[in-house]
Amino acid sequence: MTAGSVLVSAMMCSLPALAEVLPLNSLGRIGSTDLQIRTGNAVQAVCGQFIAANEANTPPANELEEDLFDKCGEMVHTARVITGDEGATAKSLDLTEEELQGALQNVAGEEAAASGSMATESSVGQVSNISKRISALLSRSSTMQLSAVNIFGNDALYTLSDEELLSLSGGAAQAGDDQLLANRWGVFINGDIGSGEKDATDGEDGFSYDSAGFTVGVDYRLSDQTVLGLAAGFTSSESDFDRSSTVSGGGLDTETTNLSAYGLFYTDDYFFDFVLTAGQGSFDMERRIRIQSNSANAENDGADRTATSDTDSTQFAASFGGGTEIISGSLTFAPYARLQYLQTDVDAFEETGAGGLNLGVEKQEIESLTSALGFRASTVANASFGVLIPQGRLEWIHEFSDDEREISTVYVNDPRQNELLAVTDGPDRDYFSMGLGLSAVFKGGTQAFVDLRTLMGMSDFTETVVTAGIRFEL
Question: Is 9 helix (H, G, I), strand (E, B) or coil?
Answer without folding.
Answer: strand
